Amino acid sequence: MNTALPTVKRTAVYVYEAPLRAWHWTNALSLTVLAVTGYLIGSPLPTLSGEASDHYLMGYIRFAHFAAAYIFAVGFLFRLYWAMVGNRWSRQLFALPFWRRRFWSELWHEVRWYAFLEQEPRKYIGHNPLAHLFMVVIITVGGIVMMFTGFALYSEQSGLGSWQDRWFGWVIPFVGQSQDVRMWHHWGMWIITIFVMLHVYTAIREDILSRQSLISTMISGWRMFKDDRP
Amino acid sequence: MPTTETFYEVMRRQGITRRSFLKFCSLTTAALGLSPAAAAQVVEAMQTKPRIPVLWLHGLECTCCSESFIRSAHPLVKDVVLSMISLDYDDTIMAASGHQAEAIIHEIREKYRGNYILAVEGNPPLNQDGMSCIIGGRPFLEQLKEAAADCKAVIAWGSCASWGCVQAAHPNPTHAVPIHQVIHDKPIIKVPGCPPIAEVMTAVITYLLTFERIPELDRQGRPKMFYGQRIHDKCYRRPHFDAGQFVERWDDEGARRGYCLYKMGCKGPTTYNACSTVRWNNGVSFPIQSGHGCIGCSEDGFWDKGSFYDHVTDTRVFGIEANADRVGLVAAGTVGAAVAAHATVSAYKRISKPATFGDSEPGESKQQTGDRS
Questions:
Q1: Do B328 and A48 touch (CB under 8 A)?
Q2: Are residues A227 and B219, on separate chains, in Cβ contact within 8 Å?
Q3: What is the pLDDT of residues B212-228, one digit of tens each?
Q4: Using one digit for the tens of pLDDT, what is the confidence trace for B223-278?
Q5: Which of A73, A218, B27, B372 is deepest in the core (most CB within 10 A)?
Q6: Min CA distance, A206 vs chain B (Å)?
Q7: CA of B300 to nearest chain A CA: how many angstroms apart?
Q8: What ipTM was reported for this prediction?
Q9: CATH tag for A11-43+55-225 (out of 3.20.20.450, 2.70.98.90, 3.30.450.70, 1.20.950.20)
């Protein structure tokens, strides 16, 4: 053994259980499909030539959107269930300890870390406070807004009296009219897209620079700490 | 003023034959989406029930609703329904004027308390004490509230009465409001559109007069039979939408072939109305059939929802107009650039100052604490 090499002590905690990891990657896939198809519904591809009966392009794009939307919605319900039966970190997505002074001081520390003003980040078994805030706002609140507006728009084609209409039809007059609901649903797509960009970047960056594992954690479930200091 | 005449008697007095009367009844039954058997009910009701008076008030409006109404497809429809209505009050087309006309409203209120229909075209302005619309020397709001106080139900004709329409569009200097904001204690049937389709108007009024009950309404108070589906759902160009065949520019090959007008900003997918089934001008055509997109005239606040020619319309927030795609692309680009810059700085910092991870203890220990607390 070459003792000249620096050695790293690692401790590990099992953070993300298998169903939660499966949900994460399913979500990643469905969000990607939703964003791409959603954009194409708003700004369709160039016109196809030939008979209308030769094609069903918009139909397929919309089908992919609705199928991915159902997967996202069912996944969200499952995630809610898992927050109840899963480990303590599975509840982070639905609980933000905003009343704790410590949460905000740690969040500020994390902001300073990203602004290159701190030499070293702190260690967290679950989400760091900044990530925690973004997860709750974008995935939980944003996801709920997208599901409500999305199902309201879906109810327009499933028709009056359908379950989508009975449960979500009220959203349309609540927001204004159909065009407004479309518009906000569209804004939601951009907000989630930008979140995904930041999420992927910070996950890679923190995996390299922070004192804990990030990407491999969402694959294996184990949070590896690179040192034993507090 | 006749009090016990039936609709049928009124029609016969107007010189309408029984054959024409029966045609009208069956046409109306079909327009209402009722079963053929219901035609007999309509005939029966028209022949036996005393005529319900209708007051037709005009507020801030352009009279396009009245213009549409008198152009009903079936010539008889307008003759029949109009003759029934004009007997009472409609300041645009009635013979009476001045104090004589205003007296009719008073008389109807006294005589048919709680048993007449109030049809409102246009809406009341609230600013400047309602001075932007004066009827008979008084603000329209007063006339409206008085006439509504004793009516059985209110019909809100057109987008003005239903939503506010052009006079309520930003910045709405007269503070014109839809009538449901000033009448709170009566059932209101909204028949939006700028104008509404003539056949829809006559069918709604006939339904009310014949069955003496309000047709089934949706969440926003519109009759489900005409406003239950979008233009898009029944559009004859829908197959081109599903296929992905669009008009890309005005007068391009797609426009000549009658492709879908979605990319030209057609509001058919967001507009609830019967244009694509009932159509206009005796069922001759409707905007999309003429090659122009729907502008969504029967939807709430359609003047303020951005361009008629964009599908992804502008968003008015804090007085700033922006399009979600433009802002989204710029934001995504900015964030992308920021991420790249941040990553570069991060990499530089790491290279220039080697990390001091680890606490110099040899070996690697794995501490498994997968607690489920």
A1: no
A2: no
A3: 789 999 999 999 999 99
A4: 999 999 999 999 999 999 999 999 999 999 999 999 999 999 999 999 999 999 98
A5: B27
A6: 10
A7: 6
A8: 0.88
A9: 1.20.950.20
